[in-house]
Amino acid sequence: MFTATLIGDALAAGDIPAAADRLAAAGCAPGAGAWLEEGVAADLPFAADLGAARIALEGAFAAVDVVVQPTATRRKALIVADMDSTMITVECIDELADYAGIKAEVAAVTEAAMRGELDFEGALDARVALLEGLSESVIAQCLAERVQIMPGARALVRTMRAHGAEAVLVSGGFTRFAEPVAAGIGFDRAIANVLLIADGRLTGKVAKPIVGSATKEETLLAAIDRRGIDPAVSLAVGDGANDLAMIRRAGLGVAYHAKPIVAAAAGARIDHGDLSALLYAQGYRRSEWVA
Questions:
Q1: Dist CA 50 CA 69 (whole Å)
Q2: How does pLDDT run across 190-242, given as a tens digit for each residue?
Q3: Exactly one of 15, 65, 84, 98 is catalytic; which is it?
Q4: Does the annotation count 84 as an active-site position?
Q5: Which member of 43, 65, 82, 98 is catalytic?
Q6: CA trace torsion 272, 276, 281, 285 (10° rounding)
Q7: Residue 185: how many CB atoms within 10 A of its CB?
Q8: 67: Cβ–Cβ under 8 A, 6 or more apart, which residues?
Q9: 230 catalytic residue (yes or no)
């Protein structure tokens, strides 16, 4: 059996039978739908054809996200997540560049790299080089003034961990941001790049090897192996091209408000809601959330 979860702040009662009709027309043999949270999230079971169900439902209802997956493995035992523009609302390197007066230049490279138009490692080296000479004190200032946790992030991670899951933050950004962000959200650990600093100033270099796409994929696979879990009960979430490898290898790979290349490749997309949508997708009712 499979489950389609519809998630949206203005989800109407009529959307559930309408979704069932679409599934029936696609040959998916739907069952009776049920609210997870009235007016916000509903589950609709069906018996056949995951791919056809996704095609039938995604984009069919305004401002509604749809996650379609096997029912037996929907509750996940592992989450591996990106940080910038996923678990937090900003790209940290762009914000650091703002303090140096070069945000527009750096942000354009960041955007191109996240769309998959540039090699991530090379683009990171080039952007960090532009920060040479910036005072180390700006990092703490940026963290305090610019970095905001993404809505739903704490509830997602803390609820999953309370139910036995492992949570790992893997970022192509920097440890000086990732470590406090991970601690504030509730991750087990964080992996990120190390900005090199000398005499209180950024050197314009980052320690090697760079944490990029391969590291994210390796972290996911290593955690699956170490815990001895079925890969189907793993979840990976991110927004940029350097998240593609882990998203493709996870049991549920989620593109979160993502670049087109990621949205097209992911097994699920969250285009409208916040990260708490991934709790509904796992069948958690709000009464089970850890605040």
A1: 7
A2: 999 999 999 999 999 999 999 999 999 999 999 999 999 999 999 999 999 99
A3: 84
A4: yes
A5: 82
A6: -130
A7: 23
A8: 4, 5, 7, 252, 254, 268, 270, 277, 278, 280, 281
A9: no
pTM above 0.85, yes or no: yes
Calpha distance 56→193 (Å, rounded): 41
Percent of the chain exceeding pLDDT 70 equals 100
Q: For 34, phi and psi rounded to 5 degrees?
A: -150, 145
CA 189, 193, 197, 200 dihedral sign is negative
287 CB burial (10 A radius; 0-12, 13-18, 19+): exposed
pLDDT digits (tens, 9 = 90+) for 280-290: 999 999 999 99
Which residues are paired to 67 by β-bridges? Answer: 5
Predicted confidence (pLDDT) per residue in 115-147, tens digit? 999 999 999 999 999 999 999 999 999 999 999
Counting every residue, how long is the chain? 291
- Two tokens, residue 233: 């009960």
